[in-house]
Amino acid sequence: MRQCLTAPDGGYYTTNRDGRDQFGKRGDFVTSPEISQVFGELLGLWLTAEWHIQGRKKYGVEIIEVGPGRGTLMDDILRSISNFKPLASSVENIYLVEASPSLRTTQKELLCGDSPFEEVPIGHRSISKYAGLPITWCEDIRFVPNKPEKTPFIFAHEFFDALPIHAFQSVPPSKTSPQTLTTPRDQISLNTPSPEASKPQWRELLVSPFAPSSLITTTSQSKELKAEFQLSLAKASNPSSLLLPAQSQRYKALLPISGAIIEISPESHSYAAEFARRIGGSTEANPSRSSALPPAPHKSEPSGAALILDYGPSSTVPTSTLRGIRSHQLVSPFTSPGEVDLSADVDFTALAEAALGASEKVEVHGPVEQADFLGQMGIRDRANQLIRALDKKGGAGSGVDVSRSSGVEERKTIIRGAVERLVSRLPGRGMGTLYKVLAIVPERGGRKPVGFGGDF
Questions:
Q1: Bridging pattern class, strands 329-331 and 201-209
Q2: Residue 154: is it exposed, middle or buried by C-beta count within 10 angstroms (0-12/13-18/19+)?
Q3: Is residue 164 within 8 Å of residue 2, measured between CB atoms?
Q4: What is the tens place of the pLDDT at every residue in 233-289?
Q5: DSSP string covering 107-165, please?
Q6: CA-CA distance, 308 to 310, in Å (whole number)?
Q7: Is the pLDDT of residue 221 over 50?
């Protein structure tokens, strides 16, 4: 997945093919920020609420987004919080974690306009059109400074589904019978089964190429793209299959089920843990911390928050969810590497476990369904506010993005339709149930954040 999506040469996100955009109606998929400006505005409101709950800090606030796409979400967030002057004046830095040079350029043009785009030791830097705030682009969150006195608000929207996964399948105990060699003096055992051979084992599902003959097509065959690779079951255990499924009781419970398949994303766990450490400081002697990451500084007072929005099951382990997406259609993930978007369901429970294991001073809330979160954040009230503004001003100066519509009634229909798409629970028609929201906040006795059953 990493090679196909972010390889410097030929990666899906890192290669600009004839100016083709991955996002939007003309691309391969549409994300919530592209559907309605209200989505990003409500995340800005959520940030404002958390900032208020945590004491309205006057300085040291940072906003971090991982995988910022075209920059639409951050643009809406910054526009939203610019209406809250005390919060806007407390923001010192904005960091965008983006591996794609072409997307960095797109984000800079949207967020900074004609401001210079300068190279700095940790990436690139420019000045936002909102309050002159500095924006720094980094290729990895490891390059984002982690100072204990700062208050980071972190957003990850449709980021974790694109991180690499490992897939494992449970195989039953080996039925190999011991073989012996009879000699004039004795019998010699040739393959004494190990104790582990009498137990179920996890075997990794590996990507392997199809035989060349299977890729040959004729003019009479379908013009559909043919998969070039397939998943093959490893013939023996490997380090990944021995280590990764042993890290959680949830995986161990599925091992006795012959044929069970699980998906594990160690990189996702690392990111969730890093979010938690930036908010609450590091749990001492944390064995799960990657040696590739710099030591986490001691944080005397937890502050900040992280909001993760993505799709996946609320509590079960994802299984066989690797998919390819092209032109808004599901396709084989093994077709046209580098030209097809790849994703897999997010294991929200695993993210929560990683965050709680990384810092003793954070709480995790959710996941809740996107429909519930946006409903509690007031999505319909905000949509009605935009519609009233259209009625009052005819669209002029209303704050509504009307670049692709004409006529007040058409604009009102677009606003209502976009909101319904974001919160609808109808299968195949909306995002309300499919998408989930999870929050990591400082430990505060279980007080729920706004959007998760809490209030301002």
A1: unpaired
A2: buried
A3: yes
A4: 999 999 999 999 999 999 999 999 999 999 999 999 999 999 999 999 987 655 444
A5: HHHHHHTTS--EEETTEEEEE-TTTT-EEEEESSGGGS---TT-EEEEEEES-GGGS--
A6: 7
A7: no
